[in-house]
Write a structure and sequence with these properties.
Blueprint lengths: L2 H12 L5 E5 L5 H9 L4 E4 L2 H10 L5 E4 L17 E5 L2 H13 L4 E7 L12 H8 L10 E8 L7 H19 L7 E3 L6 H6 L4 E4 L1 H4 L7
Parallel strand pairs: 1-2, 1-8, 2-3, 3-4, 4-5, 5-6, 6-7
């Protein structure tokens, strides 16, 4: 019955303590999150705001909640009072809305810019040119209630390690380039259940792991 605890221990022993493990708990029941919590896990990632709000209300308040899914601007207000990190920011308009909602709660919300590294058409994300446009825009300087902490990327869904290494390496290079001008950058979020070890070899500081902790997701719930 302790398979979640065992899975967490197995992953944590395989990575450095410097790597932040985000337990991707989307579609999973509160009981599963509690088991992970009791095993010491404190960082959880959700991809739907309403589901995250419900779980936040039901679970201990020392949990760090990450929004990892594609973000709809009109729903930012529902999580602005508690979300710790938003992974998937892909426009200046989204940052503006996050800043607006964070200001209402007198908070600074940490954000990651989502970079498109996968070749798949279904993946969201910014191009390197888009990244530069946002990071060095005059408007961004006025957003006092958001903090860009780094980048997030999702690699192609493949077992081809050459493709994965190439994509992760591209993101690491982009991250290191901009970190020179933004020394407060501290997060490179890349790597999931099937590829996190390769991601870490390519400089990832944060991995998003779901099925390797909780088992296969149930999308019918």
């Amino acid at each position: 019955m302790n398979y979640i605890k065992n899975n967490l221990e197995k992953i944590k022993t395989s990575i450095s303590e410097k790597i932040v493990l985000v337990a991707v708990s989307k579609t999973k029941p509160i009981a599963d999150l509690l088991e992970a919590y009791e095993a010491g896990q404190r960082v959880f990632g959700e991809n739907k705001i309403q589901e995250m709000v419900t779980k936040h209300e039901a679970l201990p308040k020392d949990i760090e909640w990450h929004m990892i899914g594609h973000l709809q601007r009109n729903k930012v207000k529902y999580m602005a009072h508690f979300v710790d990190l938003i992974h998937g920011v892909d426009s200046l308009k989204t940052l503006k809305e996050i800043n607006k909602q964070a200001h209402k709660h007198d908070r600074v919300i940490n954000c990651l810019l989502q970079v498109r590294i996968a070749k798949e058409e279904t993946k969201f994300g910014l191009t390197p040119a888009d990244i530069s446009d946002i990071l060095y825009s005059e408007e961004l300087k006025t957003f006092t209630n958001v903090k860009i902490c780094g980048f997030m990327g999702m690699a192609t869904f493949t077992k081809n390690e050459n493709i994965l290494n190439e994509e992760f390496s591209e993101l690491e290079t982009l991250y290191n380039h901009h970190k020179k001008q933004h020394p407060n950058f501290s997060i490179l979020s890349m790597g999931m259940s099937g590829d996190y070890k390769l991601a870490i070899k390519n400089g990832s500081t944060m991995i998003r792991v779901g099925s390797s902790i909780f088992g296969a997701r149930n999308y019918l719930t």
